[in-house]
Write a structure and sequence with these properties.
The protein is α/β, with parallel strands linked by helices and about 325 residues long. Bound molecules: zinc ion.
Length: about 325
């Protein structure tokens, strides 16, 4: 039997949830519904594929080489139905397709439905799925994947066995990047640190736009901290193109504000964007109180972004609220 670490797909990290899942698989006690919870872009889906491979593999060990294993990895499997949102939502039509797939005769020991970003299900989609979770066909397994499990229907959450996933360590991130072809170590140091263990983010950034996005984040912080800059300086609607980019950017804004705060106290070794220390030194002049205030407002925006919303409006709110915070007398602030 393959050892952990040598298993299919070259999974890196996640030893603890994998070990628990293997025990369930080996004991033939895999629950019908599982919920994989953890930050976006750390490899939850690859582990979900491993579980399905382990169950249906022709060599019974998720060999990663047999036809069944390869087709699962490529998401072209006769045994696994993959669902993901189309745009911001996962609609009932797709869930119905999955349920239809489950009604067909099984071609292996069992069938799997893997739902990525399950929290994007519409109410209708979630209710359709719930019916199947309540009365699942025999030898059927559902793996729901979510970075925002609280957005799932409580009735769905309560039907699932929860498996928690942690961000990867820096060395694990390196290992994943090498597997994705970055043998020369060309990924920028700041991207490694700023990813906070989310490989998906680095892969997205290296495919283009990472550097540009960080430039925008630095400019945005500059505008937030300096009330003398006219609003027209930055056309806010041009800042980001979609929700993922907005989340990445707000996350970078939070890191830059935190870095500036650390810079003000001389805590250089914990700084993420240390290659931009001149800009951080400039921002640090705003003072710790201001940095914390703007950081709190940006943090609230980051939380708001978890739900569907008007991006442009939210960024504008952050801008005007920060401005108000900077010009208001101290006692007037919450
Ligand atoms: Zn196999």
């Amino acid at each position: 039997m393959a050892q952990i670490g040598e298993i299919a797909n070259g999974i890196v990290g996640h030893e603890s949830p994998i070990s628990r899942l293997r025990k369930l698989l080996d004991a033939d006690k895999l629950p019908t519904a599982m919920l994989f919870v953890g930050p976006e872009g750390i490899g939850k889906k690859i582990v979900a594929k491993f579980v399905a491979q382990y169950y249906v593999c022709e060599n019974q060990n998720a060999c990663g080489k047999c036809g069944k294993c390869v087709r699962i990895l490529n998401e072209q499997s006769e045994d696994v139905f993959f669902l993901k949102p189309d745009g911001d939502f996962l609609k009932i039509e797709v869930v119905r397709e999955a349920l239809q797939f489950l009604s067909l005769k099984a071609l292996a020991r069992g069938k799997f439905v893997i739902i990525d970003n399950a929290d994007a299900m519409t109410m209708q989609a979630a209710n359709a799925l719930l019916k199947s979770l309540e009365e699942p066909p025999a030898n059927t397994f559902f793996i729901l994947i979510s970075a925002n499990p609280l957005r799932l229907l409580a009735t769905i959450r309560s039907r699932c066995q929860i498996h928690r996933f942690q961000p990867l360590s820096l060395s694990d991130v390196h290992a994943v990047l090498i597997r994705h072809g970055d043998t020369a170590g060309t990924v920028e140091e700041w991207m490694l640190r700023a990813s906070e263990g989310r490989c998906g983010k680095i892969l997205r950034w290296t495919q283009g736009g990472g550097e540009r996005l960080r430039d925008k984040a630095f400019t945005f912080v500059r505008v937030l901290l300096d009330p003398s800059w006219p609003p027209s300086f930055l056309s806010i609607s041009d800042v980001v193109e979609n929700k993922i980019e907005a989340q990445d950017m707000i996350n970078l804004v939070l890191q830059i504000l935190r870095d500036s705060y650390l810079f003000a106290f001389g805590l250089r070794e914990q700084i993420i964007h240390s290659d931009r220390s001149e800009r951080l030194a400039e921002f640090a002049k705003a003072g710790p109180k201001t940095l914390v205030r703007v950081w709190q407002k940006a943090l609230r925006l980051e939380n708001d972004l978890e739900s569907p919303m008007d991006l442009k409006l939210s960024l504008e709110n952050l801008y005007f609220e920060s401005r108000a915070a900077l010009s208001a007398p101290l006692y007037a602030l919450d």
